[in-house]
Write a structure and sequence with these properties.
disordered C terminus, single chain, Rossmann fold, alpha/beta, 8-stranded mixed β-sheet, 430 residues
């Protein structure tokens, strides 16, 4: 639901950004910081002022990782704000990305596009812009960023972006933020920087902030709460406790007998050079995930998976609704559909960092439990699944765990994130 701007509160940092006249703004203004710190809404509030200053001679561009993220993160707030508080008329074509805004008697032609893929820059070649709003700029591909910058050639052109923090090795931090903080005069002549923490957003309750702090630890707390650009290290699931987050097989059987699980489903990571992992999950009435059982081993194929699933349905006397499988083996997934016609087979592979955040959040709130007697490989990997050490980091992408001891970890992410994204009645803040 769009924010009620009449009741919105603005902290000191937000007022500093909002009070800056468009003609005094640098060519490139970045608002970065913690999740829910109010940076995106501050930019949205500023847009009518910038439009009025720049004029309507050239195209205005709104971009995100995809057109869908722009719609969800920006347009759902921007368009009601323009209509309700400025009397604007807005018409958006989600297919073409064309956005027409009539504001204060002037017509502004805008374009919405995704910038997250290596070929995204093809959509923006040619033409001249005078305004570019980049939502979650670090998610844009570097080639898109360079192309978009080269289109901002009008005299009053402005780039305004927001950003959640990532690794300090990211090009945005290396090229702009770090030089700005170091006092580089060349960067400061064209680049302005506003940094926000979650506590800067006066619209958030203390209870909400404290609950968010429970969700994150270590590097994730530094990024999500404090808005810091830091490198991920240590155990991926460092708050997982074998004491708190495991149970006995007897406890599982009692929950099954008591009809405490409202639904059963599976995750599957096809083995190739690594072992195959298939997990069975149940979710309780109070929305706690249990990993009930696992199939794990090398040289296993779809025949083994089909046999195991049928055996487990008989053993537990329950029907399993769906399976979300690794999409790297479409031919094997097709065989599953043929052999298990009453089960829905999905092939949705979630983004690594996002799905790790979902699973971490569930663990931090004690909403994820595994059967310690039947899921020994899952228990083992939870204890050792890690980010690269300092001397290993040159060989790995930032924020990507070491590619070992991750077979059950990948399968668990596939299953739980899919259910959480599509069926669970809770809101997870990334």
């Amino acid at each position: 639901m769009p924010i009620d701007w009449t009741k919105s509160k603005y902290g000191k940092k937000h007022r500093q950004f909002l009070s800056k006249k468009p003609e005094k703004m640098k060519f490139f203004t970045l608002c970065d910081g913690a999740a829910r710190s109010g940076k995106t809404l501050s930019v949205i509030y500023k847009i009518p002022q910038i439009f009025s200053y720049i004029g309507n001679d050239y195209l205005k561009v709104f971009s995100g990782y995809s057109k869908g993220t722009v719609r969800n993160n920006v347009l759902t707030e921007l368009l009601p704000y323009l209509r309700n508080y400025h009397g604007a008329t807005c018409k958006y074509n989600s297919q073409s990305g064309e956005l027409d805004i009539k504001l204060w008697g002037k017509n502004y032609s805008c374009f919405v596009t995704g910038g997250g893929k290596s070929d995204s820059d093809a959509a923006i070649q040619g033409g001249t812009w005078d305004f570019w709003y980049a939502n979650e700029l670090p998610k844009h591909h570097y080639s898109f960023y360079n192309m978009a910058i080269s289109r901002l050639t009008s005299e009053r052109a402005r780039l305004v972006a927001d950003s959640n923090p990532e690794s300090p090795n990211h090009w945005l931090y290396v090229e702009k933020i770090k030089p700005y903080l170091d006092g580089n005069s060349a960067v400061r002549s064209v680049f302005d920087y506003f940094h926000f923490t979650m506590e800067d957003n006066l619209n958030l309750s203390k209870t909400f902030i404290e609950n968010q702090k429970k969700l994150y630890r270590g590097v994730f707390e530094a990024r999500k709460i404090k808005g810091l650009w830091v490198v991920a290290d240590g155990l991926v699931y460092d708050t997982f406790s074998p004491i708190k987050h495991t149970c006995s097989h007897g406890e599982i059987l009692k929950k099954i007998a008591d009809y405490d699980f409202t639904e059963y489903f599976l995750g599957l990571d096809w083995g190739w050079n690594h072992p195959l992992s298939c997990g069975l999950y149940g979710i309780t009435k109070n929305k706690v995930y249990y990993k009930i059982d696992e199939l794990y081993g090398s040289r296993l194929n779809e025949t083994d998976v089909i046999r195991w699933i049928n055996e487990k349905q008989k053993e537990y006397g329950r029907f399993f609704r769906f399976l979300n499988a690794d999409n790297a083996r479409p031919e094997q997934n097709h065989k599953l559909r043929q052999a298990l016609p009453n089960m829905i087979i999905y092939e949705e592979k979630p983004r690594l960092q996002d799905s790790i955040a979902v699973l971490r959040g569930l663990i931090n709130y004690d909403n994820f439990i595994i059967n310690g007697e039947r899921c020994k490989n899952t228990l083992r990997e939870f204890r050792i699944y890690r980010y690269p050490s300092e001397d290993e980091k040159s060989r790995y992408e930032d924020d990507v765990p070491v590619k070992e001891n991750d077979d059950t970890m990948d399968e668990t992410r596939y299953a739980v994130t899919f259910y959480e994204s599509h069926f669970a009645k809770r809101i997870i803040t990334y």
